[in-house]
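To: structure subgroup
Subject: Chain for Friday's discussion

All,

I'm putting the inputs and outputs inline so they're searchable in the archive.
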Amino acid sequence: MHIPRWKKWLSYLFEMHIESSPGDLNPHLYVSLKRGRFQLCTKNAVYSYEDKYDNFKRIFSQLNLDFLQNGNVLILGFGLGSVPILLKQIGLNELSITGIELDENVIYLASKYALNKIDYPTEMIETDAAAFIFSTYEQYDLVVVDVFVDDIIPEQCRNLEFLEACKDRLTENGILLFNALAATDEDKDEAEQLYFETFEKVFPTGKLVDVLGNYIFVSNKSALKNES
């Protein structure tokens, strides 16, 4: 969607509301323009913020991702496509993207505000993330789990069975990145419990990485530059 230049300039001074698209799953879903970029938010969470989605920007800067050239990427919780935008920004070419979104309103907003900014072939599928993982036989070089309903990770994406299924969907050298909120002490305690009691059982060579306001669980710490 084309945004007039004057609106982009103003968005550096204050956040500008663009469109609301509430529904049963996300009753406070809206797109705003902030610092020249589209931001997708709910009442308590930011779902996407183009190349300013700092949790993934920070983790990508810490990873060796050369193996991902020409690879397949699965994004559970696509939002407005911050992950593929960031992957392109760091120089990864010829990727194939599969985006999973349960909320039809998020897909509508992504189609309107984001997909034209993504340079990779992108398939959007409207379905539950866990249902997709349990039903597909495809394998991926990168699986990103960024599944939230507002600021809550759904229970079906927090258990051993789901993570085992995600592991089965990885190629031999593939990695999984799991995003968890870490904005408050309570968030951190809950995320650390999820990592040490569940994630680490499935990915014993993984690592919890603090990306300031979020934790990213990495399935194999050898993918990190400071661990290789």
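Points worth raising on Friday:
The chain has two domains: 5-47, 51-227.
The chain has seven helices and eleven strands.

D.
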